[in-house]
Design brief:
heterodimer, A: alpha/beta, two-stranded antiparallel ribbon, B: six-stranded parallel beta sheet, 8 helices
């Protein structure tokens, strides 16, 4: 349903607190205050709010591999960071996961906005989406697909703590069920 | 000082290991050094292991982003990325990120022989055509120079360490392979590095 320029997705319940505020607060609580990203439409409110929050250092990288290199270096230097990317961005990072993040035991914290499913209109996105979970599984990277508001904080908070404690990367795939995804009119 | 006039065309072709030894000899404040995949980290290792050295085993092109991350985490420590020209080509965009963020404690050193030396000496697509210092300047890095010769390289390093950056230094090097081989244990490399940076305590 469209009201003026705003698309209202009547199929989704309204959360008490938007997902992007929960992610921001949970990162902050876990002292993950360096965020680098290659942008995604769905992540727009999160990126905007992180930039506006003086507690965070937030900036774009030119490529997702680069963003992972930056947070890997930062973590080795004692500063925690996270990377935001789109599904297609994930498709560019398997080499870095396999040759840097996993073998060096770097607790990279990754948020992926899931495209390619639940109403995707771009076949290119739909196909790259299918490569994501098999890659993560083959590298034994802890992966959570988050679809529900009421599970978001628990999953992100506990999994960041686990990643740091066990020095193992974690990928949060934020489903359109959580974020609303990229809406189009068929 | 030749750096004022050094260019790709008049820069002396020098040796990677020789430059790396000269660089390491100048490090007196526990500066962190990230060696890129292959010969840059082999020569860094061969110049004498330091606790603040990090050696990549893969992730071609990420020496500069890793060094940038360390520089963000430890702003009082100078961090140096040693990278090859072929590796830089893999991740040229990172120069724009660094130019935008302006980490004063970061120096980038590019060893340019126009070759993928380690895979059989094939020419890079940029060999003899692209000017990496000009690319860095166009990316927004104002402190960038070709090293005219070994002494000029040392002077450029002195300035980078004393005045801060970010600084981009490129040197034309010969086609010699690295002189040794780094021990390839990633967890050991990472743990030693974190101890060297004071993030971990040696037990």
């Amino acid at each position: 349903m469209r009201v003026g320029s705003i698309v209202i997705d009547t199929a989704r319940p309204v959360a008490v607190q938007p997902w992007y505020e929960v992610v921001q607060q949970t990162l902050k609580r876990n002292d993950v205050k360096l965020v680098t990203y290659v942008p995604d439409k769905v992540f727009t409110p999160l990126i905007k709010n992180l930039h506006a929050d003086q507690d965070f250092l937030t900036f774009p990288a030119a490529r997702e591999e680069e963003a992972l290199g930056i947070v890997a270096g930062a973590w080795m230097g004692g500063r925690r960071g996270a990377v935001l990317m789109q599904t297609s961005g994930f498709g560019t990072i398997p080499n870095v996961l396999a040759s840097l993040v996993v073998p060096y035991q770097v607790p990279a914290i990754m948020f992926v906005s899931e495209r390619g499913t639940l109403g995707e209109f771009n076949l290119g996105q739909a196909l790259v989406c299918r490569t994501m979970r098999p890659v993560l599984e083959s590298l034994a990277v802890q992966t959570h697909t988050i679809a529900r508001d009421d599970e978001l904080e628990f999953i992100v908070d506990r999994s960041i703590k686990q990643a740091l404690a066990t020095q193992a990367a974690v990928a949060f795939i934020l489903s359109p069920l959580l974020t609303g995804g990229k809406v189009f009119e068929a | 000082m030749r750096s004022a006039v050094a260019s790709y065309d008049n820069a002396k072709v020098v040796n990677r290991f020789e430059l790396t030894k000269r660089l390491v000899a100048k490090l007196r404040n526990e500066e962190a050094v990230i060696g890129g995949i292959g010969n840059t980290n082999f020569d860094l290792w061969s110049a004498g292991h330091r606790p603040q050295n990090f050696y990549m085993l893969g992730s071609m092109g990420l020496a500069i982003p890793i060094a940038f991350g360390v520089a963000l985490a430890q702003p009082k420590r100078h961090v140096i990325a040693l990278e090859g020209d072929g590796s830089l080509l893999m991740q040229l965009g990172c120069l724009t990120t660094i130019a935008a963020q302006k980490p004063a404690n970061l120096t980038i050193v590019i060893m340019d022989n126009g070759l993928y030396q380690i895979t059989g000496g094939q020419r890079t697509p940029a060999a003899g055509t692209a000017d990496y210092v000009a690319l860095a300047r166009a990316a927004g890095l104002s402190k960038c120079a070709w090293a005219g010769d070994e002494e000029d390289f040392e002077k450029l390093i002195d300035v980078a360490l004393a005045e801060g950056g970010p600084t981009f230094i490129a040197a034309r090097i010969d086609d010699k392979p690295g002189v040794g081989t780094t021990d390839r244990d990633p967890v050991q490399i990472r743990e030693r590095f974190m101890i060297g940076l004071g993030v971990r305590k040696k037990v």
